Amino acid sequence: MRRSTAWTVAVLMGLVFGVTFLLPLGTVVSGGFFVGGKFTLRYLIGVFENPVYAEGLLNSVKIAVGTTLLVVLIAVPLAWLGNRFEFAGKKLLSGLVLVPMVLPPFVGAIGFQQILGVYGSLNTWLGTSIDWLGRGRYFGVIFLQALALYPIMYLNVAAALANIDPAMEEAAENLGCHGFRKFWKITLPLMMPGLFAGGTIVFIWSFTELGTPLIMNYTRCASVQVFDALKEIGTNPFPFALVVVMLLASAGLYALSKLAFGGRGYAMQSKAATVSGVETVRGLRSVIVALPFVVVTGLALLPHLGVILTSVSQPGSWYQSVLPHAYTFENYREALGHGITVTSIRNSLLYSS
Fold first, then answer.
1. C-alpha to C-alpha distance for 51 and 47, rounded to whole angstroms
2. pLDDT for residue 166 is more than 90
3. Burial 260-287 (b: 16+ CB within 10 A, else e)
């Protein structure tokens, strides 16, 4: 009975996996290699020969590298502080710091432009006309994606730190290894599996992300080029070949990072059974430890606050001002009363279900 149930489940899962993953993947791959029923490498090679596509791939790699590095700079210190200190409001702040994970980064891009645009809130407040987003929008894209993806790295690093045997660090301290040297020589290698897991997800996610570059008008990247090419009339093989290149690049970059970082295994005799070295801080020290959580959460939610303010402001009332001049809920009535909007919401709920 158990064996028949197992085979039934395996067959059903295989069918689901084949229909939802392998079949679409095969269609895309065949579109890049088979043109007119004949196998060819012309379009795959053409992706690298075409300067526009080559630049798009390079820019996508730059986005992925920049986003991953910024995520590491944000998430690792937060995870370390949460692991080593007990402070007032820790549970609340540890929960709030994960909120951006459920908020889509491309939605925040709309509010981001309203706040950091040339005529946005920040320039109005400072009395300047600085283009904070930059002409190429590269830094805006990686900043937004990092603020949306850092919880992934935070969770992986926090789990890795929680599983480190405290005896390893205590032994290092007894041998005279303290401070940053202890972190670099002992803690970092032991948490490397979590850092690699989180970094891999963030890297591939940001490498293939479409929504944020599209909203930020950063069109010279591979994902946006595929999106634009697929909208063209006709069956152009180049976007399919570009997707194949992106798939191979993602797999290759994963293998390379696995070889460089993931293969470093540092065995411990046991997982951490007790929490050691957690310091309870109060007063000013508690505020100092909690401040990074507040700042990061505030920055991550700021673009979405801009979206909320835009949704309740009257058209044209938020221009060259810190906040909108006039507010209204008429926007919601018009949006929710439109047939296309209702259909879109229904479809989104259907797809997510």
1. 8
2. no
3. eebeeeeeeeeeeeeeeeeeebeeeebe
